[in-house]
Amino acid sequence: MRIGHGFDVHRFGEGDHLMIGGVAVPFERGFVAHSDGDVLLHAISDALLGACALGDIGRHFPDTDPAWKGADSRDLLRRVVVLVHQAGYRVGNLDATLMAQAPKMAPHVEAMAANVAADLGVERGAVNVKATTTERLGFTGRGEGIAAEAVVLLLPVSPDVHNETTTSEGAGE
Questions:
Q1: What is the pLDDT of residues 126-163, one digit of tens each?
Q2: What is the largest CA-CA distance in the chain?
Q3: Whole-angstrom Cα distance, residue 123 to residue 45?
Q4: 88: helix, coil or strand?
Q5: CB 39 within 8 A of CB 56
Q6: How far apart are CA 160 and CA 169, in angstroms?
Q7: Structure pTM?
Q8: Angle at the Cα of 100 (from 72 to 128), degrees rounded to 5?
Q9: CB within 8 A of 112, min separation 6: which ones?
Q10: Residue 114: is its pLDDT beyond 50?
């Protein structure tokens, strides 16, 4: 098994909604980002890639590449899931936290979690999305942007794959 951690942050800019967890959350501002700026899905993607030692989303979908301009982060997440499967792993469970003073996330977290579960190809019960404020502290507390963290547990696709122990049997042959 492997554990991955991801973090992402985006500041607010022009716009009339925020794309978070694949849900268009109504708000008087949008995100400043190369893609759709979905902080939740970016943190989850980084957690998955990190657990497989595959770098981060910037390595796979660089903001210097015009092909990813305005990209749908759900599409990026599904591409990351393919890489996870190719590495021989599947998602066991995922826990994610959104940090935002505004807008209120509670009305949207269930839809976000359902989207994430669908994109990961897991049951809804394997995904937890929660939100908190920072008690008006830091950049999120000042209403400058939103942050997200995610922790993921990956399991081998089959118990015989990716045994984490090594033996000297067959060494030098």
A1: 999 999 999 999 999 999 999 999 999 999 998 665 55
A2: 65
A3: 18
A4: coil
A5: no
A6: 16
A7: 0.89
A8: 65
A9: 20, 21, 22, 23, 40, 105, 129
A10: yes
